[in-house]
Amino acid sequence: MARKVLDSWSILSFLEDTPAAEGVERLLLTAESGKVRPVLLLGVVSWTEIYYSVAKAASQNDAERTMLEISELPIQLVALAEQPDILRQAAIYRLKGLPNEPAFAAALARTMKAELVTGNPCFKAVTGEFRIRWLKEDA
Predict the structure, then answer these.
(1) Which helix or strand (DSSP H or E) is residue 123 part of?
(2) Which residue among 8, 15, 28, 53 has the highest number of C-beta atoms inside a 10 angstrom radius?
(3) Residue 69, beta-bridge partner list
């Protein structure tokens, strides 16, 4: 099974139905179909970033509804505190200039030998260190 890490950028793009949402939607449909299921992972740091972003842009109620929607998707939430390798790797990525949430998403992808699914340009700083599937921002 192919592992894929979704970051806050990819999930928010999907929720906001941006042009990049199509790539995320295809992964979700494949995961739901039962055919060659990719394992879709979301780190808890990315999950909290999504909550914060929605609460800030809309309301706490909207953020809570959004988190409920995400919990119904075929995505596994990964608790990072139980993964010391991820914590160490995230510290290295922060030293390379990645903000907090992207550093943890990158560390999760690298540690789990997964492909990161994103369109966030900050990951260009670590291109080549793990696989990245770039989502297109424009149709």
Answers:
(1) none
(2) 8
(3) none
Q: Rounded CA gap, 23 and 126, in Å?
A: 21
The model's pTM is 0.93
Residues β-bridged to residue 118 = 134
- The SS3 assignment for 73 reads coil
Contact of 61 with 54, CB cutoff 8 Å:
no
Q: What is the pLDDT along the chain (139 residues), one digit of tens a residue?
A: 589 999 999 999 999 999 999 999 999 999 988 776 679 999 999 999 999 999 999 999 999 999 999 999 999 999 876 788 898 999 999 999 999 999 999 999 999 999 999 999 999 999 999 999 999 876 5
Tokens of 82: 């139980």
CA distance 38 to 3: 6
Domains and CATH numbers, the chain: 3-134 (3.40.50.1010)
